């Protein structure tokens, strides 16, 4: 076995159908008295329910979370937290809402209680992202890691099937790249494989019945494990490509991950063979790249960048940006091969192996 370093990350997880009912006790355990509730405009109803459960401990609702945390939104939320004398942020929603909570925590150190409603996994990471002047900056800081996470599968029943599938594959991407990360370790490998297995089994169940609570529970459990992997080890080519396509071409986050992952895995297939075997085993396929592609296609997800708004004339520029500030990757980044990868993803070709 290779030498490795494992950093345990503090954080309390409460998991189960109906777990939201424990909110009051969890706020008390954090020692909080005034919690600011965060959400997207679309999830205002869930935030109101949460605020009602908090009763006198609710410091208000900030309902302007959007993707990639624009600095103006972060400033608005920080200002409201100060005005209302909040000593805790409760983020109810997906990665955008958790990300807003992180922007507050980064500034003030306020603890976050996260209630995830997608499979993005941000609640398990010390990674934050803030967008200013059209540029998204990401970083790691222990103080943005949520202190408590309540996973209640009932809250995911309303997540549309399409987004459930792509968000689940966003989570799978964290685990897949964690297996070939420069700082991979055997503990994260176990979580990565189990997380992918749970999601790979759950997504077809959700597709056939979005109200299937057992499938929803499996998916959320898988998302948790995959999020832990993202929070513990570094990411590689796939995440770099998705950050390029999302950040510079405004492509939707989960869909972009879903489309790019098979091609990033095909690119790394020879250089990271043991990781590929584990991914294929977890998803019950013969090849990692094809198994991810089939999971997306067979469950109605987009498989081509051109389906989600990418323009053919932007592929050269995307390739150029992806080659700058490279993340460590098992196979060196070769310009012609990366350009071909983007072409394949643009057209939605099923990888050969
Ligand atoms: N820092 C980190 O570790 C990570 C950050 N992210 C960030 O998170 C953002 C993407 O987060 P996502 O969760 O993919 O999307 P999101 O949080 O933007 O949610 C997408 C849409 O789905 C709605 N929604 C969420 N849960 C729902 C539910 N249960 N029922 C009905 N509607 C629901 C939201 O209101 C929103 O309109 C990106 O900005 C990405 O960069 C994603 C993963 C990890
Ligand atoms: O952009 C961020 O907030 C940081 C990480 C991610 O979005 C992870 C991902 O690409 O899913």
TrEMBL record:
This is Maleylacetate reductase. SUPFAM superfamilies: Dehydroquinate synthase-like (SSF56796). Residues 10-153 form the Alcohol dehydrogenase iron-type/glycerol dehydrogenase GldA domain. PANTHER family: ALCOHOL DEHYDROGENASE, ALCOHOL DEHYDROGENASE 4. It comes from Ramlibacter alkalitolerans. Belongs to the iron-containing alcohol dehydrogenase family. It holds the Pfam family ADH_Fe_C. Residues 165-346 form the Fe-containing alcohol dehydrogenase-like C-terminal domain. Keywords: NAD, Oxidoreductase. InterPro entries: ADH_Fe/GldA (IPR001670), ADH_Fe_C (IPR056798), Alcohol_dehydrogenase_Fe (IPR039697), MAR (IPR034786).
């Amino acid at each position: 076995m290779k030498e490795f370093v494992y950093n345990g990350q503090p954080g309390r997880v409460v998991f189960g159908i109906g777990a939201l009912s424990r909110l009051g006790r969890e706020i008390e355990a954090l020692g909080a008295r005034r919690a600011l509730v965060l959400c997207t405009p679309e999830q205002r109803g869930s935030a109101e329910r949460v605020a009602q459960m908090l009763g006198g401990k609710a410091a208000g609702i900030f309902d302007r979370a959007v993707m990639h945390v624009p600095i103006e939104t972060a400033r608005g939320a920080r200002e409201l937290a100060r005005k209302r004398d909040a000593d805790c942020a409760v983020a109810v929603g997906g990665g955008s809402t958790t990300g807003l909570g992180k922007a507050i925590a980064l500034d003030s150190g306020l603890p976050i209680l996260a209630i995830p409603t997608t499979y993005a996994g941000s609640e398990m990471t010390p990674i934050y992202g803030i967008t200013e002047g059209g540029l998204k900056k990401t970083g790691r800081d222990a103080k943005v890691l949520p202190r408590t996470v309540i996973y209640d599968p009932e809250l995911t029943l309303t997540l549309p099937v399409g987004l459930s599938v792509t968000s689940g594959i966003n989570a799978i991407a964290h685990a897949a790249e964690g297996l070939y990360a420069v700082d991979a370790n055997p503990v994260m490998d176990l979580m990565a494989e189990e997380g992918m297995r749970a999601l790979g089994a759950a997504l077809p169940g959700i597709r056939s019945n979005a109200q299937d609570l057992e499938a929803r529970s499996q998916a959320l459990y898988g998302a948790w494990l995959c999020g832990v992997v993202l929070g513990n080890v570094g990411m590689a080519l796939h995440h770099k490509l998705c950050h390029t396509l999302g950040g510079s071409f405004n492509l939707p986050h989960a869909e972009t991950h879903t489309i790019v992952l098979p091609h990033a895995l095909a690119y790394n297939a020879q250089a990271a063979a043991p990781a590929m075997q584990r991914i294929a085993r977890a998803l019950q396929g013969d090849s990692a790249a094809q198994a991810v592609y089939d999971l997306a296609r067979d469950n109605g997800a987009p498989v081509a960048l051109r389906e989600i708004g990418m323009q053919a004339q932007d592929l050269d520029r995307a390739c150029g940006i992806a080659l700058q500030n490279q993340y460590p990757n098992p196979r060196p980044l070769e310009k012609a091969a990366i350009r071909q990868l983007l072409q394949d993803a643009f057209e939605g070709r099923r990888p050969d192996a």
